[in-house]
Specification:
Blueprint: H1 2-98, H2 101-116, H3 123-142, H4 147-173
Helix pairs in contact: 1-2, 3-4
């Protein structure tokens, strides 16, 4: 009887423990599904946040482009004003000299619009070239043992100095903004 009781109790414990594992497994599967869905929702939220940031960035970029376009229009308007001032000055002096005001004013207008465009070498470029050549010559003359090395060092130093001075001149003349 004891053996029968112990056998029955052990079978009941064994079966009840098996059923609990199945319930735990199904519960854990359900929990895994919920966790997966929660992670998917988090990922979607992150995607939305990224899209919002992209939209905000594009808006800022558009507003910056508008500001740049306005600045460019102001620069063009200023250049036109300067060209008109130059045109009126040169056309008045040209008409006195040639006594044909209409022909000289039209030719002077064409000439001043081309000079309003910034062409040619800047002061910085001119200063760099002059400084490099002068520095190389001075370096070669000063360095008696190794004139090639002296020319290179002098050229670099002279070029940098010439560029700095020329850049300052460009700023004064308005060719370059800070």
């Amino acid at each position: 009887m004891k053996n029968l009781f112990l056998t029955g109790a052990s079978i009941i414990l064994l079966l009840s423990s098996c059923n609990k594992d199945e319930k735990l497994q199904t519960a854990s599967l359900e929990q895994q599904k919920l966790d997966y869905q929660a992670r998917q929702i988090d990922i979607e939220k992150q995607k939305l946040a990224i899209e919002k940031e992209k939209i905000n960035f594009e808006r800022q970029k558009d507003s910056l482009n508008k500001v740049e376009a306005e600045k460019e229009q102001e620069r063009k308007a200023e250049a036109n004003r300067v060209a008109r001032k130059r045109t009126t000055r040169s056309s008045s002096s040209g008409s006195v000299a040639n006594n044909s005001s209409s022909a000289s004013s039209s030719s002077n207008t064409a000439a001043t619009t081309t000079t309003a465009q910034k062409k040619g070498w800047s002061s910085a470029a001119k200063g760099t070239v002059i400084g490099t050549v002068g520095g190389a010559a001075a370096g070669a003359i000063i360095s008696k043992k190794n004139p090639g090395l002296g020319a290179v060092i002098g050229g670099v130093a002279g070029g940098a100095t010439g560029y700095t001075i020329g850049r300052a001149e460009d700023r004064k003349s308005g060719r370059v903004q800070k």
